[in-house]
Structure formats: C-alpha cells, structure tokens
Write the structure tokens for this entry.
Amino acid sequence: MSAEGYLNTARFALANPRRGLVMVRKVLTRVTDPRAYREHRESLAWLASEAQDPATVAQSIAPELWNEALEFGAGLRERAVPILERIGQDMGGGGDYEFLYWLTRLRRPEVVVETGVAAGWTSQAFLAALARNGVGRLYSSDFPLFRNQNPETAIGCLVEPALRANWELCSDGDAINLPLILARVSHVDLVHYDSDKSYSGRDFAVRLLRPSLAPDGLIVMDDLHNNSWFHDDISRASGPYTILGEGGRYGVLGELRSDGNGPRAGELGSEFCQDRQVGVELDAIKSTDSERE
Ligand SMILES: C[S@@+](CC[C@H](N)C(=O)[O-])C[C@H]1O[C@@H](n2cnc3c(N)ncnc32)[C@H](O)[C@@H]1O
C-alpha cells in the first residue's frame, strides 16, 4: 500500500471507531485463519474442471434475456467511463454484471441481497433488472474502501439516481449489515457474495443467510479461487451447483435451471440503514451524472 493509502486508512479508522473494529477483525482474520486466503490445489483443479462459460449457459436457458443482458452491459460500460474518471480512485473490478442482470431477469427475485458494492457494477445490474421486472428490491452490504480518500462518497457511484429508491445500502461491514438486512425481509431469493473473500467471511455470511433462503433461492459467489470454501461447501452439503467463468471464478449454489416461483406476496421494508448518508453524499456525484445524461 502507498503512503497515502496508509494515511487514508488511519484517518478512516480514527474518524469511524466502530468501523475501526471491523478493520482490526479483518487483519486478525488474515493472521489467525490459516484457510483465509490460502489457495488449495485440489479445489483449484476441481473448479477449473467444472467451469462452464456463462454466456453459453445463459444462452442455452434464455437466449433473448442474454441478448438483453449484453445490451445492458454495453450501456453500463459506456456510462461508467466518465463517472470513474471523475471519481479518480481505484475502485477495483466489478462482478459479472451481465450474468447477474440475466439471472435477475430470469428468476424475477423479490429479495436480492448482495455483499460488496464498491463502484456498484453489480448493484446497477440488479437494480436495472429488478426495475425491468417491475418487482423486487435490492439490499446491499458494503464496507468503504478505506485506502481511498473519502471512500464513502464513491460507494455505488455507478448506480443511476433513478434506481436508488429501490435500494437499501448498508456500509458497516457484513457482520453488522447482514443481521440488519435479514431482520427486514421475510426471505431471500438471490444472494450475490462479493465482499470479504476470506474463508471465514464466506462461512459467516452463508451460515447467516442460508436459513432465510427461499427453497428455490440461489447464492452466487465470486472469486472462488481465493480458497477452498466453495469446494468444501459442496462436499459438505452436496446440493446442486454451477461453476462459471474462466478457471471457475464464480459459482452458483442452488438449481440454476429451475424457473423459480416468480414474485411472492409479502411486505418489503422502507429505508432502515443508518448509512443513508452515504446515499446523500452520492447524490452530489450522481446529480452531476444525471445532468450529463
Ligand atoms: C470486489 S468489491 C465489490 C465489487 C462490486 N460487486 C461490483 O461489481 O462493483 C468488494 C467490496 O467489498 C467490500 N468489503 C470488504 N470486506 C467487507 C466486509 N467485511 N463487509 C462488507 N463489505 C466488505 C470492499 O470494501 C469492496 O467495496
């Protein structure tokens, strides 16, 4: 990390003592959890051998929705260039937003929970697909990229202002955010896990989310190569799964080919996260964005 990165990290921890604790936990995990980021040769070979091309899978199930997803992706990439230039900070790469858009259109989930927002490639994909479906709400859990200056102002910078009314964004870390989110929903239809990539981080979140998952619900997980969590989970639970992307970068727990039950009746909450201030700060960025559009 650069000197500026260390300085930003220290500033962030001092200004946010509660979040400072999350940062301490992250460091401790790296030191105390031997499986945290250890690569696992056997599981890497298994991932690569099982991997399928997401475009081929999507086309074989719902080709017209895949074309729509590709169109969405092209539009998002074009919109993203000036926004990310203006932010001028390293926000990391995005998840497979085209596949997630397609999956959301296919399954028509009522409740989507994602962990890991950063610039919001995947948040924008979920929200755009939910808007097109005319049903469903997105609950996101993030933690600011504390190496950057004023990291909160950039969370979800790619999410269109018009879609944000359907979005609950919490940014205190999964350990705090996920229980809050789960307390607000009757069930979860679709999970995208793209936050704390350590073994224990994945384990914690899935153990928490699984009991609320609808019978036909899906958990999509990114960066499977980081450790053997996914392989171990399949060995333990032996449910249906699909592994996608080059080398098996991400996976789906649950039956991908089932049609899902479509929207369920039920309540969906209004705003609840204390971190709506994130959104307020974002408005400043977004309004410039929408003025340009
Ligand atoms: C790979 S990025 C997410 C990319 C995003 N899905 C997209 O497509 O643009 C990972 C994000 O997870 C956040 N994160 C890391 N640890 C976390 C934790 N314990 N709880 C919540 N978010 C966390 C990081 O700060 C970062 O914003």
